[in-house]
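Many introductory courses stop at the sequence. We go one step further.
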Amino acid sequence: MERYHVLLGKRRTTVSVDKIVSEYLALHLGTTPGTPDGHAKVRAWLQARLDRNNDPRRSRVSQWLLGEALDAIVSPALHTAYGRWLDTIISAPYPKPRLRRLKST
């Protein structure tokens, strides 16, 4: 895990991003992963995402930013396929729960 210090509103917080996602994001941003410049650019990108969304009361910040990072680095084709899959899931009727039958004695 890579740790980044960001501001959430006026509050300083630390977010954790999986190392490989952080490396992919650094490459996506045109910088070298594992370098001070790479770390700074990824941190700035994460901060910009938080600032753009402007939700100082957000919880689970690391998880939300992980989703934002993945959305930024996946291919357009994969992004489209994911959107279609979500549409299918959202429009599907909820499955009925499977109930266990108790054996009668």
